[in-house]
Design a protein that fits this description.
78% helix, two-stranded antiparallel ribbon, mainly alpha, 400 residues, globular
Length: 400
């Protein structure tokens, strides 16, 4: 009977996790990445939904381990995320997200899941993981300033008449290429590491030469990728400047979709990580399941959201869209590398606001910004309070 109860608990937790993955895929991670490209008429809505689902799945499988393990193991000190605790956290978080979807309230998934996991963990006797909280809060607080500031500077550069767009856009493409060369992928693991970058992978086949502790081989590969990216975009810009910008937006959308999968899948499946030993399930299989949930969400729910968001992005124009997408990609990759659960909506909204201020504040509502920030904080506090209270009550009633 006890074994049956444990199995039933695990099934409920898995179903809640799948629902969360679907909601994330249908929401911010599925709808945001290609909305600028759709708004710029670079790709159709249905094709965007199809591609973002595939890229989200790839990102979840190839880059999702860090955030997934952080959500499952690092938010509370102690082995306290039991099957019952994980189930309570996932059901409450999924319920709040569903409430936000159907009632129109802006419930932030990252804040909700983080609050729920910390709440049940502390209620179950765990200790606060202060060092991890410091990392998380630092990135959450810095994101609006870093993302908005970078978007503002990029938009100002693209609006500067003394810098031709045929020069500025390829330079930005080179920066994006350098970032791509140094982000980690599970398939490129080597030297005992769980993942590896393109620069590191190629550099291993080159003579090992260091200068002040800096591997020159990896630097050379990074520069080569950056130059190739800049040259490819420059060629497109010479042929047709507007079409070149749209194609660059498509590439950025793909990179953001991939990054969203890597950073958001952990919010759905992270609470299940401590339970893997009980069901003898390897982490890659769990990542694949979470990625599949994102994919289904993107294919079934994202097109409607993409169409709605594209109308907002079409008013931004390609330059402001490019300015918003580049820092969004960079910050998402920083979160993936550090294993920090981060709100994709926070990243995107901050970048859009920053690019909007570069255009004189056009389309930026301060009232809406304040309400959004309050919604983020409210999501965290509500999820923490509910999960702590509900788990405490269930523990008293049923001895969980």
């Amino acid at each position: 009977m006890a074994a049956f109860g444990t199995l039933a608990t695990l099934v409920v937790a898995a179903l809640a996790s799948l629902f969360m993955a679907w909601a994330i895929g249908a929401g911010s991670s599925g709808s945001t990445p290609f909305a600028p490209a759709v708004g710029a008429n670079a790709i159709s809505v249905m094709r965007a939904g199809f591609i973002v689902g595939l890229l989200g799945f790839a990102g979840a499988f190839l880059q999702g381990a860090n955030v997934t393990q952080a959500v499952g193991n690092d938010l509370v000190v102690g082995n306290v995320l039991t099957a019952s605790a994980a189930t309570v956290a996932l059901i409450l978080a999924a319920g709040l997200v569903a409430l936000g979807v159907f009632a129109g309230y802006p419930i932030a998934t990252a804040f909700t899941v983080t609050g729920a996991v910390v709440g049940v963990g502390l209620a179950n006797g765990g200790a606060p993981a202060w060092d991890k909280y410091q990392q998380i809060v630092s990135l959450w607080v810095l994101t609006p300033f870093l993302g908005g500031g970078a978007a503002y500077g990029t938009a100002r550069l693209l609006r500067n008449e003394s810098v031709p767009e045929r020069v500025a856009v390829p330079v930005l493409a080179g920066i994006v290429g350098a970032i791509v060369a140094n982000i980690d992928f599970a398939l490129l693991a080597g030297g005992g590491a769980d993942a590896g970058s393109i620069a590191g992978y190629v550099a291993r086949s080159l003579p090992a030469v260091d200068a002040g502790g800096v591997p020159l081989g990896a630097v050379a590969v990074t520069l080569a990728v950056a130059l190739l990216a800049a040259a490819a975009v420059a060629r497109e810009m010479r042929r047709d400047e507007a079409a070149g910008q749209r194609r660059f937006l498509l590439v950025l959308g793909g990179l953001v979709a991939f990054s969203a999968g890597g950073s958001q899948v952990g919010l759905a499946i992270g609470p299940l990580v401590p339970l893997l030993d009980e069901v003898a399930l390897p982490l890659p299989a769990l990542l694949a399941g979470g990625g599949l949930g994102l994919l289904v969400g993107s294919w079934t729910g994202a097109p409607r959201m993409i169409k709605a968001l594209a109308q907002d992005y079409s008013s931004l124009g390609p330059r402001r869209s490019i300015a918003a997408m580049i820092p969004s990609f960079a910050i998402a990759q920083v979160a993936v590398a550090l294993g920090i659960p981060v709100s994709f909506n926070e990243i995107i909204v901050s970048a859009i606001v920053g690019s909007g201020f570069a255009a004189g504040g056009a389309g930026v509502s301060r009232e809406k910004m304040v309400k959004t920030v309050l919604a983020w904080a409210g999501s965290l506090a509500l999820a923490f309070g509910l999960s702590y209270g509900v788990f405490t009550a269930l523990a008293l009633l049923f001895g969980l």
